[in-house]
Amino acid sequence: MPKPMCVPLQLPEAFAQIPHYKILYPISSPIHPLPSIVPASVSPHQPLISVHAKREDHSSPLACAGNKYRKLEYIVPDILSDTPIYHYHENNPTPPGPLTGPATTLVTEGAIQSNHTVQVAALACKLGLKALILLHRGTGGGLRAAQDKEAFQRSGNVQINHILGAEVRVCEEGDPLACDATPLLDQLKASGENPYWIPGGASLHPLGGLGYARAAFEIAAQEEEMELGGSGQFDYVFVACGSGSTVGGLVAGFKMLERMDGKTRKVIGVLNSPTQPQDYHEERVLNFAKRAAVLIGLDAWDISIKDVRLDDRFVGSAYGVLDDQSKETLEIMARTEGMVLDPVYTAKVARGMMHWVKEGEFSSSGLNEINVLFIHTGGQAALGAYADVI
User: Fold this and answer.
1) 52, 299, 338, 359: most buried by Cβ count inside 10 Å?
2) Confidence (pLDDT) at 131
3) Is-catalytic flag, 28?
4) Domain with CATH 3.40.50.1100 in the chain
5) Which CATH number applies to 13-60+207-386: 3.40.50.2300, 3.30.450.40, 3.40.50.1100, 3.90.180.10?
6) Which secondary-structure segment (H or E) carries 261?
7) pLDDT at 7
């Protein structure tokens, strides 16, 4: 197992000046090889492939480490500001001005087994704030597919939210709060709280893409410490595409690095939900990437739709539903690499990545040797709620 690295990041000046609150460990989340994922024999016409995993599930001392903590690192300075700016719901037709004083309560939303809500609740504990979590019963298909629906609604991430002391409210399908939580935020203000709204997945927050733009620089720094063959870099980076800003941030960060070092790294976002068509997600990711790009010192037109690469072949039947093929991937990864995936995101990403590797989908790259990075974004705490299918 490689030693954890604490490598200084050489961020562009505009990026380095953006306020940032440390939630992650001072060392980089580790990258380690996955030798069992590479086929034992490779066709002479196929490039040599090496596969590594970046363990974002080992990135923070806070509960259930995962990708949302990176996003939250750039949101916390606004939360703690004397006049927080981005505290209102994204669908509020008349956004209010700044809060008069630092936030006292973090409010967010997600599906019943949302990883994001746990990370917001844990952050609230860290900051000495209250947390109010809205869980939407109608989001995704995990609850509908569960054999024991009562267990699904009290175990996994739901249980951890309660352990962390968050107030949890469950919204029925069709609840207006699912579209705009402004009335709830107004109620909290009337009761003397200063509520700060964090959108689901933190993606629609104006600063939501910065964490993974920074992660791109972390990956580039780790590449320099590794003995990668071929190009000496990760040529393809596979990551889940849910709410979209993890992919968008990586696209922006790697585009800035391309300008600085001339190296091209392709981000492959593996979609985990069939709710919307691929072109909807592509436009959404593009907007997140452009927004992050402008903040870190690029121009919006430096990024185009050609930089957004999504794969929708592994979504399964619904968001939050573990299909048979992804379940098999989860079990293979556990029994060959000793690495546990989650049932909603990383099992589908790993399935997609393994398909690319085994079916020779890198052959058109023109490279003789290819380095692949799989970003493990966490989420294993949800496994308890899926005990009836795993």
Assistant:
1) 52
2) 98
3) no
4) 13-60+207-386, 75-202
5) 3.40.50.1100
6) helix 245-261
7) 62
